[in-house]
Amino acid sequence: MNETVHRYPRLMTWSVEILCTLIVILGVLNLGITLLHYAWDVLFDIDRALFAQAPLLETVVEWMNGPANRAPVNSFADMLSALIWAAIALFLAILLRNSLPIVRTSSQGILVEFSGDWLPIRWEDLRAVKVTEDLAGERFVLLVQTDKQNLTDWHRFYSLAYNLRLRPGLLVTSSIDKFDDLIRTILSEVDRAARADDDVKPLRLDESASSPLFRLLLSPAAFFTRRAASDVAAETEEDDGIEIESIDDMPSPELISEPIRGHYPARITALFTWTSVVLAVVATLRYLSYWAYVLALEIPLLRQIPPFSWTIADARSVALIESYAAAPVPFFGIPDRPDLPAPWWVLVAAHLMLLFMIGVLIVLRNLLPSLEARPEGLTVRNMLNGRWQLVSWQQIIAVKATELSEHDQILLIQARDRSLPLSRRFSSLLYDGGFRPGILVSSVIHKFQPLMQYALHQIVSSQDEKRRSAVLQQDARSWLFFLAAKPKAAFERLVAESRDQAASQRIQATSLLQAAKPMAWLALLPALILIADRLLLAGSPPGANVAVFALIAWFVSMLEWPLIALISVALDDATGGGEEGYRAVYLYPTSQLPRILAMFGALALLTLNVPVLPIIAWIAAIAWSYFLASALWKALYEWGGSLAVLGGLIPTLWQLLVLLGFLLVQR
User: Fold this and answer.
1) How far apart are CA 572 and CA 185, in angstroms?
2) Which terminus of the chain, N or C, has less C-beta within 10 A?
3) Which of 114, 92, 91, 90 lies closest to 102, judged by CA?
4) Number of CB atoms found within 10 A of residue 280's CB
């Protein structure tokens, strides 16, 4: 057979190269600045004689030196954090850079690119191919495993990411050039080698050994809404024999021998479980670090003992310790220095953080609960303690539906006040901004059809004549979920519904108030992030300026709405359009709703004081905003090319200014 070369698209490889370069630059820059601090603090002072000849040099040196009261770098232990981050940056760069290698096939075997060299793998050395596909069966990630001597130890980390195994493996995705030909070649050549030599083991193609991580990355929306073939097969095997064609055909309660129970696939429960565990562990460690910090401030003997010494790292703490070298820091702070940490407030911040994270964990763990439909009502399982709570059919007042596709839906079952715990109100808040107790239900749940048909039958039967028509609200869709899961279809629906209303071309006070609601939620998150930073990370009681800065952050974020919408209207007029009028003013806030998810992630990570990740999550929200805005202008104005890029960049630049303002206030 002739040699064939399989490459990944240049856009994909260049993106990975740029990302790796940025990671390495940031890690090395941080390490370099730390080494300079060590040189300036221990080895020699800064020679300021050169500043007169090079004014720009003074600016650079002062910036790298940091504030005057920064923590000194006097030992290797002070440099350890920078060294660790640099090592992590190099480690990630090597893994990412070699995750998309060039693959060459010939009659002898495979050549795999790795760090500028080639790793030869004979056909008879291939042992298994594990397959992960998205739930639509359109995209794939394969883990090709070989004998241990064929690949490097670095390739063990790819198996670790795939299915938590340490056998060396090679990742191959369906984005590679001539993917189908590559897989056919691997299967046929290994099969040929096995027939020619009895000592060669046949290749195992394991389609059941999928990776939850890569399945989530391949299709996040389908991960939560679409059933896999294995789920459907399992449901068919466990079917209790009840066949339902419509609500009218639903058997009466006395004919139901057993409750209809719905539970979510293992991939979803595992994701929520492990995410909750990781957050709980980080929150616990963060809570203990608050106490270690307070004990170090109050007991001088502990200040040189790890882990108490690790908490004295920032400039303000160092200045505080230097002022009270042999004495406890005043518990209620220094009266004339409100900017320095006060031990009592550190403990308050610790408990505020803990309360917030407990709420996050309760909501996250119970976001998609198991359900059971009984003749007397719907029972909801508390996923934390395993208990079931009964909600009678009379207490359920609405079932709101968001249809993502013919087979994918997200429902919100709302009940009367006090019928469900307070944490269930977050489901309604996430669905459509409401605050009634609610239960989110995804079509991926086991026995979705019989469960929901039976529930609807019972809910409608329990209502009086006036309420029956209002129970099922198929038009009360969640734009947040719709735009996040199916953006193209959602924007088409959003624009079509706006065009059906002729009044949407004009400015009306009532419509403006309705559009202001989603924008108010969007603008609230930057303000909450700023408040959380000052309450939980500053170490001292907040002043009135925090409320002022938060109000300014909210107002500036709200300004994004009229500014971006009116600029788009002006651009449409300037490019020969104008027939849409002021529809962009009403559509823009709703179109940006999905970025709430990334911003809330930034808020949770900042609450835990995780380094770097909150800013990365905020930047991810900004990047998401670009794609959402660009898609809106394409659907509304039919913009394309540079005009669509410009339309997406305008809100991105405004949000970058908001982020920059936060970083300046934080500093």
Assistant:
1) 52
2) C
3) 114
4) 15
